[in-house]
Amino acid sequence: MIGFSAFPYTLCPLTLDHGWLLDRMRNLHPGMLGDATGIGDAMASAINRLRDSKAKSKVVVLLTDGQNNCGLMQPDIAAQRPSARHQDLQPSAPSSHTARGAGDDAVDEGALKRIADTTGAVYFRAANLDRMQEVYGQIDKLEKTEVQVDHFTRFRELANPWLLAALLCLGLEQLLALTRLGSSHEEIDD
């Protein structure tokens, strides 16, 4: 997951750990990466992240407020990169202009449609949450690649200090039993 505003930032590398991904998403706040939109830089960063993936199909979902207004790479140039065109990379471009309260003129639909056409992707426009859920439902139906994941669990023995303390207490109890303090019977004087 690449978060972007004025510059892109990899919030989470490719992972199957959805819990960690959601946790990383919760740490993303508006304005923390600047106050502009660098779509081209974000696309280039996402494409680079997918370059070494062995997946049959590679998909970048570009969620933007819809207008590139900063960055080193223009979106059209990022979409024309060989890795975007020849590695089955298909950026989809949902656009939610209501996220920042901008008007309809803030969405550069022409540029977003060109990105989709250049990469063989699909452009979606989502002006509300219901439409956004429909778009993500369609994206979820795309081809999936099965991945075999090895799970490793690290165990750390925590009982040893407690066992040692218990043995020390038992030893102390045995020692005290041999002394006058540990004697359980009373001597009776005549």
Mean pLDDT: 80
Low-confidence stretches: 86-90, 95-104
Order of strands, widest sheet:
1-2
SSE order: EEHHHHEHEHH
| Class of secondary structure makeup | mainly alpha
Query: How many beta-strand segments?
Result: 4
Our measurement of the CA-to-CA distance between the termini, rounded to an integer number of angstroms, reads: 89 Å
Quaternary structure classification: single chain
Global morphology: elongated
| Biggest sheet architecture | 2 strands, antiparallel
Q: What is the tally of helical segments?
A: 7
Q: Can you characterise this structure?
A:
The longest helix has 18 residues, at 160-177. This protein has helices at residues 18-26, 39-50, 75-80, 82-86, 109-119, 129-140, 160-177, and strands at 2-4, 8-10, 93-95, 123-125. Mean pLDDT is 80; it is low at 86-90 and 95-104. With 190 residues, it is mainly alpha-helical. The strands form two sheets. It has a two-stranded antiparallel ribbon. Strands 3-4 form a two-stranded parallel ribbon. It has seven helices and four strands.
Short recap of the structure:
The chain has helices at 18-26, 39-50, 75-80, 82-86, 109-119, 129-140, 160-177, and strands at residues 2-4, 8-10, 93-95, 123-125. The chain is mainly α and 190 residues long.
Give me some keywords for this one.
single chain, 190 residues, mainly alpha, two-stranded antiparallel ribbon, two-stranded parallel ribbon, 7 helices, elongated
Task: Summarize the SSE layout with pairings.
Layout: E1 2-4, E2 8-10, H1 18-26, H2 39-50, H3 75-80, H4 82-86, E3 93-95, H5 109-119, E4 123-125, H6 129-140, H7 160-177
Parallel strand pairs: 3-4
Antiparallel strand pairs: 1-2
